[in-house]
Structures are given as C-alpha cells and as structure tokens.
Amino acid sequence: MSGQVAAVSRDETYTFSKTNRDSITLLAGLGVEGDVHAGKTIRHQFRMTYEPELPNLRQVHLMHEELFGELALKGFEVSAGQLGENITTRRVDLLGLPTGALLHLGEQAVLEVTGLRNPCSKINDFRKGLLGEVFAMDSVSGEFTFKSGVMAVVRRGGIVRPGDSVQVENPPLPHHPLERV
To answer: Which PANTHER family match (predicted)?
Structure first.
C-alpha cells in the first residue's frame, strides 16, 4: 500500500486544531518536535491528571484526508489540522491497519501505529454534531466505529513534508485490529 502525506501540522499549546506547516520534524521516542503532545510519557491533557507516568502511545496523530470529503457530504467543512492531527494522509487506509504497522514517511521517518484515536466531545465544540459523524455505533454488530484517525509512536525520526510518500509495512502475522489508545 502506498500513499502520500497531504499536510503536516503541530502546535506548541493545547488547542483543538493544529497549525499547518511546511514541514515537521519527528523525534524518535518523543513525537513531533515543538508539539504539545511530544514526550515519552502521556501528554493528553485530561489523561495526564490521573495517569501521568503511562508511556505516550499518542505521540503522533494521523488522519486520512478522505474523511474530509465524507464529512463535506454531510455538511461539515473540515480541513487538514483542524481535528488536531499532526499528519494528514491520502490513499492510506489508516483505519484498516493492524496494530504495530510501520509507516515509512518520506526519506527516513518511521512511525509505529499504536491504535485508534478516541474522539472526544471537543469535536462538537469545533462543529456541532460532528462527533456523531466520527464516532458511531454499528446498529447491526453493536460495535463502535472510530473514524478520527490513528495514533503512533516515532521509531525513527526525520523531517516530513506534504507530498512525501507513505509506505506501509505490516507486522508479522497474526495481525491484531486497532483498539483505542
């Protein structure tokens, strides 16, 4: 599977949306240089209050650009970085990846996918009703569907820019489906 980086974003402060950049630098074991969520231990603002020593499995947030087209059909105008992602991809089935998949970005950076982003209620503060479009229960199976991207850790650092390639390397079998992190 081959795709492309559509946009890169980061922000130094806790804000819902992140600012688009010409490039970001990924730091092995930490995340996006200069981003508020970078660190070895959890940086999620709410979770830091009760689980501050947990390893940071949410160093980098990735979202598929195709979601924006799907949301536009339902009346929601959303663009890269607005839902808090660091890397927006195109032509990569992020939600279908197994846990532990490696994403080779550009010339040298490598991310390991750790799980699904658990969408929070702040999505409705951004656009009223949007949470219901990125988080839904399947009426047949009773399972929840999470569409708001995946989380990853940085295995090998490097600079990532819009237009860079994204190559997927699946882990050895058996594959395990993504769960919320």
So the answer is: METAL-SULFUR CLUSTER BIOSYNTHESIS PROTEINS YUAD-RELATED (PTHR36930), MOSC DOMAIN-CONTAINING PROTEIN (PTHR36930:SF1)
